[in-house]
Amino acid sequence: MDERLTRLRRTYAEEVAKIARLTYVPAIEAFAAVPRERFLGRGPWRTGLGSDAVTPDDDPAHIYKNVLVSLVLEKRLNNGEPSYWAMAFEAIRPAAGERAIHVGAGTGYYTALLAEMVGRQGSVTAIEFEPDLAEKARANLAPWPNVEVLAGDGMALAQGEADVVMASCGLDQVPVGWVKLLRDGGRLFVPLTATLPQWSGGGGGANLLVTRQGDRFAARWVGGVGIYNCMSGRTEAASERLRAAFGFPSEPDGWASWRPPAIASLVLSGEPDETTWLAGDGWRLSTAPP
């Protein structure tokens, strides 16, 4: 392996870990091992959401930083900031031998990190709605035999017991079908987002982490998020309920101090009660302990 690239990846992994306060060693090692440039096409690359944010050349050093890289500019689809995923991996801690499902895999970079963490004795199912991105992911992930790539709707294609289910796209309600896939101790990580007027294809909110504990489910937030929408399972009515529950600030400068209301559990039975923060079809997020 090119010694310069090896050094770049190690420095990058350490930088991302510092920014995200990542302490989970398997995740740090995955960032240091997986060649990010393999998943981004040939450079120069767009390292922002604007058309003018382009690297001066195709030196991989430009993308071994905490930058998002555009995949489909007109749809604002991108390979997100590594620190966001470092934060997610710190919360989820995918372990050797586990099965993970990744919805919204894009071209496969963060799927490859998952594959590194679960190892050859584990497996990852990657699901991507955009057919061309799914095709690229399939080719990019060929060196990881523990990964399968499916093209289509993650709501329908996410099947089978899993230890980790995570999404790279925003939902406006809890995906009960995914929750029911979790083995005991399994973790679900999904961005819960409401649409925003300034972004027709995406939204904002907070990342929901659900952990199965026998027949109960602990729930908490893991940081705020702005991300593009999942391509199915969203309705404007659900988004409006979520927006109201989050209590989004009315003024732009209010976002600096905004925090989602505290929750403690996900409940899949019974009627909403005084502990219910938000309820949907067959679920409610509650302030009561699991």
Give the uncertain stretches in residue-range form. none
Q: Largest sheet, described in full?
A: 10 strands, mixed
Shape: globular
Q: What is the N-to-C succession of helices and strands?
A: HHEEHEHEHEHEHEEEHEEE
In order across it, which strands form the biggest sheet?
5-4-3-6-7-8-9-10-12-11
Structural class: alpha/beta
As a percent range, the share of strand residues is 25-35%
Question: Count of helical segments?
Answer: 8
Helix fraction bin: 25-40%
Q: Distance between the terminal alpha carbons, to the nearest Å?
A: 48 Å
Task: Tell me the number of strands.
Answer: 12
Secondary-structure map:
Layout: H1 3-20, H2 25-33, E1 69-72, E2 77-79, H3 82-92, E3 99-103, H4 109-118, E4 123-128, H5 131-140, E5 147-151, H6 154-157, E6 162-167, H7 176-179, E7 182-196, E8 199-213, E9 216-228, H8 236-246, E10 265-267, E11 276-280, E12 283-286
Parallel strand pairs: 3-4, 3-6, 4-5, 6-7
Antiparallel strand pairs: 1-2, 7-8, 8-9, 9-10, 10-12, 11-12
